[in-house]
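Both lines are retained for reference:
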Amino acid sequence: MELGRVYLNCALENFRIMKRTSERAMEQLNLEELHWTPTDESNSVARIVKHMAGNMMSRWTDFLTTDGEKPTRNRDEEFEGGYASREEMMAAWEAGWEKLFQAVGSLEPADLLKTVTIRAEPHSVIQAIERQVYHLSYHTGQIVYLAKQIRSSDWETLTIPRGKSKEYLEGMLNRFGKKSE
């Protein structure tokens, strides 16, 4: 398989992991908790979702042919208010991710060195994808951190539980037919 295809597949898989990680954290919160902020200057999970969804819709709509910052986007408004229901929030979330998955999924390796713009700044397609990987992973971490703070001792871990690293490694070694040293 050519390097460009490997890269695109890897980027898509990383986006899927970010989406699922965020969703597993959000599933642990009720609507009130989704809107909780630790300080007046902080964002709630709901506002982070609103921002991520707005960003993805803007960046990935007509990705190869228009600037990634659409004139219809109001970024500042993404950090105001929230959602009336979990369903409303998740609909915006899904729409943003669907736009990203459709756009990235339709790219060909030959597209990777094409130039696109974001806020009039030129980027190679690779740079634009990497910019989005960084941006969405940053906010995924915020969502998980906020959810973990809210749930406290009721938090259901999303990765390897504390004190279980050796067990996890043994399981992986067994799964892949290797012996531990």
Observations:
- Residues 3-175 form a domain with the Four Helix Bundle (Hemerythrin (Met), subunit A) fold (CATH 1.20.120.450).
- The longest strand covers residues 115-118.
- The chain has a mean pLDDT of 95.
